[in-house]
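Handout for the seminar on molecular recognition.
Each group receives one record of this type.
Step one: identify the two inputs.
Step two: read the structure output and locate the region that could contact glutamine.
Step three: write two sentences on what you found, then compare them with the reference statements printed after the record.
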Amino acid sequence: MDHKVKYLFVTGGVTSSLGKGIISASLAKLLQGRGFSVTIQKLDPYINIDPGTLNPYEHGECYVTDDGAETDLDLGHYERFSNIPTSQANNITTGRIYQNVINKERRGEYLGTTVQVIPHITDEIKRSIRLLGQTGHYDFVITEIGGTVGDIESFPFIETVRQIKWEMGNKCAVVHLTLVPYLKAAGELKTKPTQHSVKTLLEQGVQPDIIVCRTEKHLTKSIKNKIAQFCNVSPTSVIESIDAKSIYDVPLLMRDEKLDIEILEKTGTPIPKTLDLHNWERFLYNLNNPKDEVSIALVGKYVELKDAYKSINEAFVHGGANNQVTVNIKPVSAEDIEKSTAQNFLSDVHGILVAPGFGIRGIEGKIKAIRYARKNKIPFLGICLGMQCAVIEFARNVLDLKGAHSKEMNENTPYPIIDLMEKQKKIENMGGTMRLGAYNCRLDKASVSYSLYKKEMISERHRHRFEFNNDYRKIFEENGVRLAGINPEEDLVEIIELKNHPWFIGVQFHPEYSSTVKNPHPLFTGFVKAALEHKNKK
Ligand code: GLN
């Protein structure tokens, strides 16, 4: 039953990219700090079933949950802030809603009725929202509505919010995020876009309870009063969200603006006396008071895109803060290395990370970067495709297996060191069919990985079709590669290390997805530490 759970909705107006995800995650952090249990969900208005088949140009990074959902990257923020794992139920798209409704229609569940947007689509959206509340695990379910109010695509979601608000009264509240632009020529902050955006929301029957205003300058009292007056909210419900140095400052900025108190009051929730954010503040202290800095190259195919490697960037923030070291990421395009030398791009860095990816573009550049890291004993972390490239590099240049490759890149390679998983060979559909989600991995106690995780059995998230070909295990082991992590259920190689190298690790899984502020990932913490040691030796 979800009788005690409260539902909070976060909508956005004026423009996209205002940071609804960060506001949602910050709100969750504050409520957790008050002792409440919280989960966050994202509703995306596009028709794809999930973002798993979208390329990074379209949608940035695809995030993966423990239970194998391929999701919007905002779920990464939710986990990094709240430290609560998300699941299939935390990201729902219009495509998924329609698919569920159409499946029900085919099963005859609506027999005799015309299936319509209202009530059938909105009922299905409602069901998806309440699913999390009904687990009984949460005091608050925060639902972020993707897109901007007024978009055709998001109408059924906003309509559902209207219905839920009507049905639940003060057991739910709507936070509307808008932009208050500063017009340089006029020297003024402008409230009109916010007024218009609230009007659009009102046209759809939803009165926001709280308005959070993104701004580059502080909102004066009179600006807040003006927004309050035009938008039917009290001045204390107009919350300033000023540009922050880092996303991790936002929870504290929201605390100063009393966003949590406003929410608790609006939902008739007694306000707990204390707000405990001391872990968060300690993390921020370490982040803002570094004792040193390192430079780490991120070698990949999409390095020019801000969001393509989101979780990796954030995992470096956590791992850096954990060492009190600033990590300066140097984006290096694999194709640039391909056309030139690794030395040209990598001689000034203290660590090299080769990123996950798909397809052949840039592969030879990645392999060159790995060769450079191996030969020059520079700390190296290869993730997923990055690990596969490390194996290929070793096969070609140490084991002298000329033309060794992954079957993904060359069907006819004489040495298919990386091959399709047995289970993948018969798969025809693209969406949701990779090896997805968390799998076990047993660590070799002699490995560097074991010294970092400090336990034998770990669980990490995957998203790939190809894997290390077990036929080659022996020759690798005999020549200095430690198979440091093995999946015990299916006997798959999950981690490789080089014995004759201070810090060289390739992982078939994605450690970046499970790094949070509270639990920085041991591989990233260890990698930053190794980079620092390399720098000091230099
Ligand atoms: N393309 C590789 C595979 O499918 C690696 C995937 C990845 O890096 N996420 O196995």
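Reference statements: Residues 356-358, 384-385, 408, 463-466 surround glutamine (CB under 6 Å). The mean pLDDT is 95.
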